[in-house]
Amino acid sequence: MAKDLFATGSAPQVSVGLIDGQVPYLTVDGIFADPHAVREAALELDYSAGIAHYPGRIARFPAADPSLTAFIQKAAALVAREYVPRLPPLPDGRRLSSLRGVDTDFAITDTHPDQLSAAQREPHTDAVPVFGLVYLNEKPRGGTLFFKPRSEPRAEGGGSAYPSASDERFAVCGHIEGLFNRLAIYPGFISHSGEIEGEWIGGDARFNSPRLTQRIMFFF
Question: What's the CATH number of domain 13-88+123-152+161-219, 3.10.20, 1.10.287, 2.60.40, 2.60.120?
Fold first, then answer.
């Protein structure tokens, strides 16, 4: 494993976008200096069943890895400097202030659409107000979609697969493209879902060339 596996790129490109024309998200393209090495090392980890309705498997690097620690410190500084000041008040009226902690893991999405639970067929919110995701897929594996509930739902219950478009209950109100080696930082309090669609999720490709992301949770 490379000594500085999680070294950041020499010229990352930071951009700001809006969800539903109101709530900002950040993208940082070229986040890792060697994303192929990060993907290769991450896929060698021992994965186990995900928690909190995650439709796949989760793994962690050793918490004391100095390269990972340095990367997380940079991500935390970016959130504090560039993202939190742009955020409007949370749905409960609270404004975010000091960052209390950061956690990270790696996730593979490989649950067949026919095997999803009812909760996995609907958009969700996160347990943290700010969430980070590094897309580590050269092949198309989708980004992240954001949803808002319709003011007058026209049906009950979830769909028949991963949430991937507007339906009778939710309307798509934002999209982050899952570009290889892109870090996305977005509001965990807005309903969202991985953009999981295409033939790969129903066949062997979900195991042979899996959708891999690094998840970063920011606690306030």
Answer: 2.60.120
